[in-house]
TrEMBL record, chains A, B, C, D, E:
Organism per entry: Microbulbifer thermotolerans
UniProt subcellular location: Cell membrane
Family per record: Belongs to the anion channel-forming bestrophin (TC 1.A.46) family.
Full protein name: Bestrophin family ion channel
Main location: membrane
Domain of life (superkingdom): Bacteria
Keywords tagged on the record: Cell membrane, Ion transport, Membrane, Transmembrane, Transmembrane helix, Transport
TM region(s), chain numbering: 20-43, 49-70, 209-230, 236-252
One of the Pfam families matching this protein, by short name: Bestrophin_2
């Protein structure tokens, strides 16, 4: 996630970090080059491209904006839902902490176990969503025995939630907490499980592939045909105009690609490291640890 | 569901698996053929089609993009809601597993019964949503007596949930679990029932038929009239331009048709087999089974 | 609800059942007739209509598509929410059945009473949403005494839910079920009450009347002015083009009218009879009745 | 709320009650008058306005339709959410009644107290949302002592909910109902509190003022410039065309203004009186009162 | 938040407080100035800019309206969600008050503690969302010991919720309230925690930076190119037309920037002070305090 203030008027045009331009510059140059060739040919043979009128571009343009707009909305919704799910992880985690503190006390084994499992769950989920090996982080938090069962588990984050569930059931059977209070804990676990399933849904199920193909193909075709339609009227300005159109369309397209996978590590991905660290600091503080690890800082305006 | 990375620039135009083109090529060719005839006639009798100006196409085009855009949004929402419901099935199922493990233990009859019913429910729901006979799969999981009642049941998945409910009530009457803990189980069953009803809603209630008729008819009329409007200005380029417009419109239309039924077995259907297998592996692991069945692999980039 | 597969290419243009055309044919013919008159006058007095350019139609057209698009979305949302509410009725009803089976048993008076009240509730709600007298159906399910109180009730479906609530409270006071289990039942009743209130909301509160007026008036004015704008350019093709525009706009308008009242008995209304029968069959089966009434069949592709 | 059937074809153009025209007729006439002046000047001095081409109107028109469409959607969402909240008030109120009946009985002091508080809450909330003094209505329902505390309260509806809460807590302390059943009541109170907060949110927080300014200013500028752009092409038809565009845009704008405040007493406000009376009749019936007050009738097709 | 009635026709054009114009006047003037230069050059050298036709502006304009429309919707949703979250804070707070009153009584230490923590939570959350130091306000409400733990806490509002949770657990352990009633309190705390996480989500996660860049860049490019496209047709009217387009686009853009951060202190920020004071007055009244602090008044039509 890029974190920087709104740049001033002139700076706006020279901002590089966080811009989508570096990734669409090849397409823009390609389109501008093609336009230049078309202009050159047109100047040589003026009667060659007079017949393409711009109405048909309008029709394809309507379809294209329909596609790009839809895809952009769908991708942004995925991104924002990803952020919402991690926000939910945070407050469900905090509620679990609060319950642990209230019914066990900060120094109790119950609370310590909850804190460790919660952090292991969060680290594990984040690493899986980023295609990284979660076990090194998990080992920081769990005992060797617990790590072993988590490592073998088909669904590692869920196995960690099971560890909390088993601990709660044990406390109930010991009479330390009653089954009504256990329901408070249980509802937090169900919610954390829902967060995990939501994240996996976004992670595993991209926008249907055929959309991507349709959008890209129509986008390329449109930008490649555009100079033929504009050259008769716009002459030497054609490469500039087509380059701007290409920037507007390919830029949005590339941005949508990024937002489609909100957990990826790039300029527009969510700052899962920062969120995890936030929760970690809160967790460790309830255990009385001191000093706490520092918050994650942004690097080149980027927070991961 | 098609699972493949974003193809490179040139590959983009030659991707076949996952593309919608094979299914709209007849319409595109038909429109291109008609265009060619119109161009030929226009070259022979130039004064025949001069009078259709493109403004009226703009007006129909606005209506058409309104329809296609609406239908596309509605169908994508159905598809994504279908995925959301199966994600909910997963985490409610996992919560049921966790409760079974916590309050019964992995080797208990209660837990084993829950696992078997959960898998039978999932297999049964998936097969019904795909118009397949669910009983072979159900028989893998349930006892002969249970299978018999499920087979006769008007609503088979719900009958399986009733089996879990009866088991829970039995445990309560035996005093093995108290009624507060039983509410934890009960809420999972209500949620699974909601998942089933949501899936059946999407499965049984298509977008109103009249929409489909309106969209298709206006789409065909538009594409068939377009060459008459373009030929005076665009001349020999008319077939190419109308073919591109036809590709853009029919492609979106066909894609919407697919997404309308998210549980169908096709390129854009949800990967219910893979999701079911995921849950199955997690279920079997809690029973200590080894080795587990492998995850479902994609075939020709397609995951069912 | 129309239930039929996607027709083939040629069949598409001749489908009659489920099409919106029969209801908008008067408007289309009126517009086509007016166009023909305009063309005839134009051929006689060519200098009469040259001055209307099409730009102003574009401006009205943008406003019109804004209206039609908005209204279409709002009406479809009402229709889909109606379906969603009935899906909720189904699964809340099933959960009530499951609770009755689990805590009373299939042959208990409690379960029989729940089944009868649930079916009476469903039939009563459906008939009220269709402006039909619900009492004949209610009498099939309830005792004469209960029917009397339901008949006199200001809010009949809610009175039926009160009957269930009173029965549950009675069981609690007898000690047959505890108050925790009673909460399971109570939450289903609240949810059924929410379903009823949601259905009544859609039934009693149409889209604001002024929208309908605005949309219709602008739609008619637009279609009546269109031939004057097109005749100079499109000549003899004007009646055809205006008829197509009229079909696209009036068709969507009429379809929106249908979807606005999703519980009505027409081609696009929800199949409440079929949904009710589905629940009835499941209810009766839990009572061990045999044979069950058959599912509702579609007639002329229509399911009510 | 206007309640009337869809008028026939001719009647459609002469409907007055419920139409938005009376409120936008000044703007329409102003625009038509300006257009006439422009036409007159243009006929006198044809060379004065030739240079404004319509393309720039298209660009402003796109922005304007973006604004009007957005504002219309946002306002309709507020209106529909207002109706949804009152639907929720109804079913939460009914659930409270049902609980009172079930656990107290229709003649109990508990139930009578709940009924009175519920009606006082509903009347009080409605009157506050309509800027009316709620105390006369509240005095109909509550004892003098309760009225006094409600009258002094900063938040009157919430004070009434507190009265119910205190009564429930009293019943629990007396042992008349257990704390599990009290949770059933408590959850209804939380929900009623949510309804109140939702209504106050809509009531107190209009769409940001700057939107209204932007929309109005651009709308006026657009309609005032339009005749200059159209006069060269459309000549004498200019006043008619601009009047239609003004009707379409100002009509939608005025309608949005109405829907923004769904609780106001006007043609498009929600029928809160009718909804309150509906609940009142149900409440009084559970107390065995006879005869009940009649339902609210519409007056000049309007239901308040 | 600007709170003022709809201004009359003429006043509409001279409203200053609440208007977005003061902030976009530099851009508008810049564009108008550029336009004037272009007009001047065009009058001198008429053959210099004839070749840019307006079609390409239409294509960029479609993309631009797509961007601005999307961003506007996304920002308004954030703003409205912010308001919704604070409405939720209010009713969850009120429910906590009602519970405290019911189960402790207005004079009890439990209730007083809840009131103080609730107000400290609200003040603390508001100040953090506005980048202000929350401790002065928190000190008004909490004891020195509690303040110390809050001051050191990584997450201050959450620490305050923990204080309530610990108090509730203490009451349970003393037997003053049972664990079922404690669940009523606990659910309010979870909800308040969700409100906090939601506010932090909106506060910490802006719309992706790349959108802002894309929108701004395309918006500037568009407005800077527009005079070249319009000058051939519109002549001397070009600066006026481009200034209006710039006002429409930059105005919406600036408004979106405001709504993106709904908790900021500006014309379009939410009136968090007023909402906090509302809750404060309700809280203090339940403690019997008199006189209450007055409601927050608007200043220059602005409520903070």
């Amino acid at each position: 996630m890029i974190v920087r203030g709104k740049p001033g008027f002139l700076a706006l045009f020279f901002v590089y970090h966080g811009s989508i331009i570096p990734r669409v510059i090849p397409q823009i140059l390609l389109v501008a080059l093609l336009s230049s060739v078309v202009v050159w040919v047109h100047l040589k043979f003026p009667s060659l491209f007079p017949q393409l009128n711009t109405a048909s571009f309008g029709f394809i343009g309507i379809a294209l904006s329909l596609y790009l707009g839809f895809r952009n909305n769908a991708c942004y919704d995925r991104w924002w839902e990803g952020r919402r799910l991690w926000g939910q992880l945070l407050f469900e985690g905090r509620s679990l902490l609060r319950l642990g503190l209230s019914y066990g006390g900060g120094q109790s084994a119950l609370h310590r176990h909850i804190v460790q499992c919660l952090m292991a769950f969060t680290d594990c989920l984040r690493d899986q969503l980023r295609n990284q090996d979660p076990m090194p982080k998990v080992r920081r938090w769990l005992s060797a025995a617990d790590c072993a069962t988590v490592d073998q588990a088909v669904n590692r984050p869920d196995r960690i939630l099971q560890l909390i569930g088993e601990q709660i059931a044990l406390e109930v059977s010991k009479g330390a907490i009653d089954s009504v209070t256990a329901r408070n804990f249980e509802q937090r676990l169900v919610a954390l499980s829902a967060v995990q399933a939501g994240c996996e849904r976004i992670f595993n199920t991209p926008i249907p592939f055929a959309y991507m193909l349709l959008v890209h193909r129509v986008c390329y075709i449109y930008c490649f045909l555009l100079p033929f339609g504009l050259v008769a009227d716009s002459g030497l300005a054609t490469p500039l105009l087509t380059a701007i159109v290409a920037y507007a369309f390919f830029g949005l397209d590339e941005l949508s690609c990024d937002l489609e996978q909100p957990f990826a590590i790039n300029d527009n991905g969510l700052a899962l490291n920062a969120l995890t660290r936030t929760l970690e600091r809160e967790c460790l503080q309830t255990l009385g640890e001191h000093p706490l690890p520092p918050p994650v800082a942004s690097h080149n305006y980027r927070l991961n």
